[in-house]
Amino acid sequence: MADMWDVIAAERGALADDLAGLSDEQWQTVSLCPDWTVRRVVGHLTATARMTPASFVGSFAKAGFSFNRFANTAIDKNLGPGNVATLANFRAVQHATTSPPGPKLSWLGEVLVHAEDIRRPLGITHSYDLDSVVEVADFFKTSNALIGTKSRISGLSLKAVDADWLHGSGDEVSGPMLSLLMAMTGRAAACDDLYGPGVAKLRAGGH
Question: Does the pTM exceed 0.90?
Fold first, then answer.
């Protein structure tokens, strides 16, 4: 677990460095989470890093058990008065090891996927630890929690071209491991990097 938190801290730090030079306009870019701008995704990452199981339960109940209301309220509390404050708040949680309840690997996935949600629309490339990307894909492939990955990839054969990773049976989808992870978790834009007869189905299951 210590190694996982080290990876998370490194990825948070790398993302913060990438964000440091953004213009005000870039902070308002729509992320791959279509309801959230880049700034709001960063606020979400900060909120998640500051949350504990107890604070999650209390806040979720206060939001009437609406995940969207809960998530957006938490984001609002962690944005700060402007973009500089948003980034400072995010840097402050770089080494945090607290999280809401749930499987620990989901928090590694949270950081990797949301970092790419931010970077791709901004045209920023980053070299992620490939073993970590594979580990997160292995976690999500059997889960429908929140984002429905298991159902989305049902009937598809997914094959990475840059890692020893293969999952499922059916119409093939091949491409870079990171793009497979993003498409598996509902990011249709990542399908632009993939090929094979199953791409259309995978794209249709995303946003």
Answer: yes
Residue type, 98: T
* Structural domain count of the chain: 2
- Contacts of residue 183, defined as CB under 8 A and 6 or more positions apart, other chains included, come to 173, 190, 191, 194, 202, 203, 206
- Structural tokens at position 49: 């890093």
**Measured distance CA(92)–CA(147) in Å, rounded:** 28
pLDDT (tens digit, 9 = 90+) per residue, 96-150? 999 988 888 999 999 999 999 999 999 999 999 999 999 999 999 999 987 899 9
Among 106, 122, 138, which residue terminates a domain? 122
Number of residues that this document lists for the chain: 207
Instruction: Give the Cα separation of 191 and 151 in Å (integer).
Output: 17
- For residue 188, what are its two tokens? 């249709």
Last residue of a domain, one of 91, 122, 153: 122
Q: Are residues 145 and 112 in the same domain?
A: no
The region that residue 51 occupies, defined by phi over 0 for left and psi between -120 and 50 for alpha, beta otherwise, is beta
Contact 95, 89 (CB under 8 A): no
Whether residue 134 sits in one domain with residue 99:
no
- Residues 164, 110, single domain; the answer is no
